[in-house]
Amino acid sequence: MKPYPKKTLGIYSLTCCEGCQFEILKDYDDFSQLLKYYDVRNFRLGQEENLPGPFDVSLVEGTPESKEEYTLLREIRKTSAIVIVIGSCAHLGGIQSERNSLPKKMTLAKDVVSIPEVINTDFIVPGCPISHKELFAFLMDIYWNKVPTLHDLAVCFECRQNENQCLLKEGKPCLGPITRGGCDSICVNGGEACYGCRGATDQADFAKMKEILKPIISDEDSTNMMTIYGDYECEWKRRTDEGK
Amino acid sequence: MKYDINKHQLGKLVGTITGKYQTFAPQEIGGKVVLAEVKTLSNLRLFSRPTVLPFKKILFPDRVEFGKADGTKSIALVGLHVCDVHALHIFLRQFVDSKLVLRRDNILIVASECEPDINCFCEVFGANRLDGFDIYLQKEEGDKYSAYTNSQTGEDILDEIDIISAEEQSNPRPIKHDDDDFEYSLEDTISRRADFEDFWQRIANNCFGCGACTAVCPLCFCFRQEYKNNIDGSSKICLKWDSCFAKGFSEIQNRNDLRPENVDRIYNWYHHKFVRGKRELGRFLCVGCGRCIVACPANLNIKNILSALDEKIERRINGGNKNS
Ligand code: SF4
Ligand code: SF4
Ligand code: SF4
Ligand code: SF4
Ligand code: SF4
User: Fold this and answer.
1) Which residues does UniProt call coiled coil (chain B) (predicted)?
2) Can you tell me the ipTM of this complex?
3) Which CATH number does A7-143 carry?
C-alpha cells in the first residue's frame, strides 16, 4: 500500500570519516526497500548523477570545515523541508572536536562546531556510527507523516535488560547513566564501556556522573571521556535550555 | 509432602518437568547466570544468586507484538527464589483482567532455596514465607535434596520419580526470621510528600533517573505501545518495557510533562510501590529482592531509604527482630 508519492531525499557528507554514509549502504536489501519510498536525488557516495534540491528530507553527516561546506550546509537548510543530522560528528562535533581542547598555537584551524550550532535542524539520529535500522525507521515514520522519536531512557536501562555485569559496580568507568539509550547497550554487551556516542539523556546529571567517576578515574580522564564524541555536556545544555 | 531425593533424581525431576512444560530456569549461558528456556540440564544453576532480570522477562517479554502472546500455553518456572514467588503472585494479580500475561493455572512454580545476601530484605514484607509454589527444592548435605509439594500438580509430578522416602508432616527450613507484624507507617509517610520534600529532593539529587531499577524490579510492569513502521511497508504494535523515569512516560500533549523533575519521578516510584500498589492490590509492590540495589549505578539503596522512612523497618533490617 503506497498512498503517498515518493519523498525526495538528499544525503550529504561534510568533513568526517563517512562511516555513517557507509552504514546507509550496509544492508543493500534494506536500502533498496527504502528506494521504494524515497527518491534519492543526491548521494555522492552511492550514485553518479546528483541533482540540487529542493528536497523533502536531507540527511547530513560530518562537521563544516571549509567555507564551501558552510555554504553548502546553509543551502541544504534553505532547500530542505526536513533536515536530519546523522552521527556523532554532525550531532556533537565528533572525534575531530578533540582539536578544540588543544592549545590554540598548536592548531591553525578554527574550532570544530556541530551542525545544530550552525543551522536549525529538525531531527537527530545519533551514534558513532549511526545504525541504519534506526535511521530507516526514522525515514519510514517521516514517510507516513509520523513524528519519529528517540529512545528516552539511559543506556543503563537496556544494559540491565541485557543482564551485563555493571562496569561502574566493578569499579570501571562507564557513561551509561547519562547517555541516551537506543543502541541496545552494544558496547557494554561487548565488554567495553559506554563512551556516550549517542549524546546525553534529557535528565543527564553531569555533576553526579563526575562524582561517581571520581574514585575510579582522574578528573582529567573523566573530562576526556565525556568529550570523545564532542562536548555532549554543551550540547545537552543548549538543548535543554531551548526546551525550557 | 516432603520427598528425599538425590542429585540423579533431581535431574530426573527437572527432566520430567521439561517433558511436560516449556521450562525456564536459571542457567549459565555465556558466562552469565540468566533465566532462560531449558534445553539441556548441564547449564542449570538451580540454587543460584538472583538473576539480573526476574521472571517478568519470560511472562512479559520486552517488545512482544501486540495480540501475539499465546495465553493458553503452559510453562514451568523452575528455581525461583521465595521472594520471586511472592512477586509472581502480585504480578499475576496486576494482569489478571488482561490477556497479556499467562494465568496462575498455566504456570508450574518450582521454587528453590536461596542464600540471603547483603542486599535482600524479603522478611520485611513477609516475602520470605514459604508459600505459593507447587514444588520447593531444598539443598541438603552431600548430593541430597528435599522436594516439598504444595499442590496436587506438584505431587503428581513427584509421583513420576522414584524417590528415596516421603514424609507427610514436614516443613521446609524457614528463610530468615518469620514475623507477622507488618503494620508500617510507610504508606502514610510516603503519601505526605510535602512534609518530606527535602528528603525526596536529597534522594533525587543522588539519582540519575536512568531507570535501571525499574528494568530489573519484578514488580515494575509498566509498558508502552510502540508503533513500528517497517522498511517493507508493514507496521506493527509492540509492547515495550517502559519506566516511570522516562520522559515519554510522563509527557502528554504539547510537551507538558506531568513529572518534569527527577524528584517527581523517583517520588512516584516509591509512591506507586508503597502507596498506590498497596491500595490497589493489597500488597506493596516490593518483595525486598534487592535487585534494584545491585542495579543502581548511583548506589542508591532502597533498604536505607525505607529504613529512614520507618523506624520499625530500620529495626527489622538492622537489628533482626531482637529489638521489636
Ligand atoms: S555498565 Fe554502564 S551502561 Fe551498563 S548499567 Fe553499568 S553504568 Fe549503566
Ligand atoms: S553503549 Fe554508549 S558508546 Fe556504545 S553505542 Fe551505545 S551510546 Fe554509543
Ligand atoms: S537505578 Fe538508581 S540512579 Fe537509576 S533511576 Fe533507579 S534509583 Fe535512580
Ligand atoms: S523495589 Fe527493589 S527490592 Fe523491591 S522488589 Fe523491586 S527490585 Fe526488588
Ligand atoms: S514504579 Fe514506575 S515503572 Fe515501576 S510499576 Fe510503578 S510506575 Fe511503573
Assistant:
1) none
2) 0.94
3) 3.40.50.700
